[in-house]
Amino acid sequence: MEYISSSDKIWNNKGKQKASTSSTVQTLSEENPNSTITNIVHPFIRISRPSPPSSRSTSPSFSSSRSRSRSQPPPIMTTSYQSRDLKTRVKNYFGYTDSTPETISVTSWAKSSTPDARSAVTTYLLSLFPFIQWVPRYNLTWLLGDLIAGITVGMVLVPQSLSYAKIALLPAQYGLYSSFIGVLTYAFFATSKDVSIGPVAVMSLETGNIIASVQHKYGELYSAPVIATALAFICGFVVLAIGLLRLGWLVEFIPQPAVSGFMTGSALNIAAGQFPAVFGLAKRFNTRDATYKVIINTLKNLPHSSLDAAFGVTALAMLYFIKWGFAYLGQKKPRLARFAFFASCFRHAFVIILYTIISWRVNIHHKTPRISLVGSVPSGLRDVGRPYITGELIGAIGPHIPVATIILLLEHISIAKSFGRLNGYKINPNQELIAIGVNNTLGTLFSAYPSTGSFSRSALKSKAGVRTPAAGLATGVVVIVALYAVAPAFYWIPNAALSALIIHAVADLVASPKHSYGFWRVSPLEYIIFVGAVLWSVFYTIESGIYWSLATSIVLLLVRLARPRGHFLGRVRIKPESVEGGHQIRDVYLPLCSEAHQDIPVEAPPPGVVIYRFEESFLYPNASLINDRIVQYVKANTRRGKDFSGISAGDRPWNDPGPKKNESAAIIEEQLSKPKLRAVILDFTAVANLDTTGVQNLIDTRVEVEKWADAPVEFHFCGLLSPWIRRALIAGGFGQGNTRSGTALEVAPAVIENLENVASPHPLPERDSDGFPINRTTDLETGEQLLNNHNQNQVASGSRTPSSRGSFVDEKAIHGVGLNKDGTFKRRTSDNSSRTVPLVDRSTPFFHFDLPDAINSLNLEEEQ
User: Fold this and answer.
1) Which residue has the higher pLDDT, 315 or 585?
2) Is residue 569 part of a domain?
3) β-pairing, 609-613 with 679-683?
């Protein structure tokens, strides 16, 4: 006999090995009936050998064989037995038994999950440069759309860049530097055609707060541009590392209400800080205080408004008048809608140009300007070179890095995903993070401060008909022209007009009442997170609003994981109407106590059967809660197996007080009328993960309910979608063994498999043009009727026993009825291309395909 390791065998030779093993055992037993058979455990085969013969044996045949083995022992057999004994002891030490069903192995999973190294590296490198995919197909039609969209965005980007640099406490030219490098680099690394990169209001506000904090600590040791470029380099490097390591999924831990909350709070903070400049009051108090303080101080100082108010208030009113006026024109005159759209897009540039001309006419003859002006803006790219970064500066910026990085990540990814869904394409979040990281790290060579995606400019770019990310190159040309040709004219731009432009831009970031009410309707708890983020940003700082959003979101996630709902189920019989008008009765299982189904009578499961459905993964945070929930339900709805009522207090367990003295006979009779626990069915359909603590709590649950019932209790599982969950349950001792009748009862249907085209056991429903599922009831009922008729014919003819009902299906016997990819039955022209495949391994009779199969297995057992 030669030992065969599991690594040397192919996947489908299990049956042959068992057959040969059984024949070996039978031969040895016939040679010596008194010999002891010792099993060597192996995950795939069972090899048996006789124990060393006793000296008292009187069998002649065996005695002669023993003498031959003493004179000349076979070296191969001795070595093989010693090797097998060692392996047996090792496996027994780790608790591996011969009856353990085959499960997924770490080795096979690693091999199937590990891609080819060469192809993986090639794919990774190509993904870093997305422009390689679309540049070869570039054409004139795309060029025209990109030019229109790029120039349109550029006309908005230039005045916004000047305004946002003011929020960041930087000279105006640094906003243009950030705009130029942002749109230029993003075109080569982007997976979104709609996003416009550059200075944004929220990031500019955070940059200004960091600059003010560092300068408050170190004075004029570090200038504002030095601090801003160092911040851009550090944040860009962090974001770039996240993208290269493919950790973009971390962003998904921050929900949409949290993002919307601190964006709304930040927008209110920015708008409140710009109103003093609109009225010429910026020098009278600190505009970077908490939002509510700025609002109060602005109202107190309104009587001291200067001539700047004439520019700021009228500029803000004109911006809204142009926006609403052309929107109304586009609705009333559909033929002029495109003209109205582009005319509205140029309102930012138009207002800035108009008020710059007015400012020049007002101040040209005065040595001292009568209003606050932007001042001199040097032409071209003057401050080019590597950033100045020291350890001391990094230490000063360090505490602010998490918030700044989160703003870069969230604002850009949320915008990119939104426009991807709107325009029918999917972005790569990791590649978008790489694009942001490259933009900010390379931008420091041109003295750029942190920049990310802008919602308002991205919306404008999308509506303008952009075709590819190359539109950013046209936008970059507009910025360069402004830097080199128009920079001297920037001197006369009124600061009040820029503040009006900022207020007009950030107003779109404030969540509308309809939007915020939607949070309340979907999840009141998430609405609290949204409101809390807004309030923290308004009454304290935007950093506190972000930290509130993150902390409460994570706490809510953990609470939902640790306190899952779960339901005890009962049966409801329904009669869905088919297309042809017939009726087919089927069973569905709903919660016994549910607010959503108060008017539906739910029938309790069979006596002594408990059905529980999980709603979350079964992990260590919620394992103890679910254990207590099941045990308490069992004790409340089933009777105790052993009667302790007549036992004295001294013999009673310490934690069992027993019946009360004044307890009526009716209550005792009611307790005795309850059924005895027979089986627990656990629906694992919603369970995606099961850890060691969960398995241990399942074992504890089984021990507790069996002590209560004073008898073995069957634990059935259905909906095991993950092979790792099945592996974990088998390791915990679940799923195996026989039922009380001694028969392995698995009634799950088998998949009718086409060898050329395998049907999915969990198909997605087909949908019509409106997105609704197509009703396939007629097809399913027809196929099921054929299967049922065939099964009844086989039982009646004696070719099949009732105990094997549903364990497999012979597709040839039902006249070629098979399964389509959508799960419906179909007919095949050939009966030789199919075979039967069981949905659930027969070695685990307590694992079922779905809940009806688990119930049917209990009913079948009762019949037997």
Assistant:
1) 315
2) no
3) parallel
- Which residues have C-beta within 8 Å of that of residue 216, sequence separation ≥ 6? none
Give the pLDDT confidence of 225-234 residue by residue, as tens digits. Answer: 999 999 999 9
Handedness of CA 364, 298, 404, 345 (dihedral sign): negative
Q: What is the pLDDT of residues 236-278, one digit of tens each?
A: 999 999 999 999 888 888 888 988 998 999 999 999 999 999 9
The DSSP code sequence of 364-424 is TT-SS-SS-B-----SS----S-----HHHHHHHGGGHHHHHHHHHHHHHHHHHHHHHHHT
Residue 423 located in a structural domain: yes
How would residue 288 be classed by pLDDT, with cut points 50, 70 and 90? confident
Q: Which helix (H) or strand (E) holds 289?
A: none
**Which residue do the tokens 């094997």 mark?**
804
pTM, full prediction: 0.72
User: Helix, strand or coil for residue 644?
Assistant: coil
Average pLDDT over residues 20-37: 39
In total, the chain counts a number of residues equal to: 864
Helix axes 337-345, 140-167, angle to 10 degrees: 40
Q: What is the pLDDT of residue 188?
A: 92
In this structure, the number of other CB atoms found within 10 A of the CB of residue 859 comes to 12
Residue 619 domain-assigned (yes or no) = no
Please give the sequence-ordered ranges of beta strands (E in DSSP) within 661-737, or none if there are none: 679-683, 714-718
Cβ contact 447:229 at 8 Å: yes
Look at residue 51 and tell me whether its pLDDT is greater than 60: no
> What is the per-residue burial (b if ≥16 Cβ within 10 Å, else e) of 726-757?
bbbbbebebbbeebeeeebbbbbbbbbbbeee
Q: 301 and 191: one domain?
A: yes
**Residue numbers of the domain that contains 29:** 6-100
Coil, helix or strand at residue 568: strand
Q: Which residue reads 């065996």 in tokens?
A: 62
User: Are residues 194 and 77 both part of a single domain?
Assistant: no
Give residue 2's pLDDT.
41
The total number of structural domains that make up the chain: 3
Is pLDDT above 70 for 576? Answer: no
Domain annotation covers residue 517:
yes
